Amino acid sequence: MAKVLVVEDIAYTRDGMCDILCSLGHYVDAATDGADADVFLKLFKYDLVVTDIMMPHKNGFELVKDIRKNTPSTKILVISGGGNFYNQDICDAISDVASDKSIQKPFSKREFISSVNDLITEGD
Length: 124
What we know:
The protein has 124 residues and is α/β, with parallel strands linked by helices. The protein is built from 5 helices and 7 strands.
């Protein structure tokens, strides 16, 4: 079982990911954006952070950068629906961040579980 932080501003997406992770036996916390995630990251150590990119207050790019600086051993799964970020395609920009893995929205339950399992078993 892993300790996982899910960071997603869209409630039904966040709740869905949390439900899947809990059903797999993981301990899960949820944050609504990067600023909210900062509070959790100061209080707890996580094996995995699952984060969206486009969020209010503090985006996923900033969050990933801070995680890499403060807790580099934490695995990071980036999820995104695409779009543009400062005139750069999100998909291209994701490849520039130091995430361990990324998947595009919409993703299947199978793809999400596979990505999570890949990252969690990497640390074993």
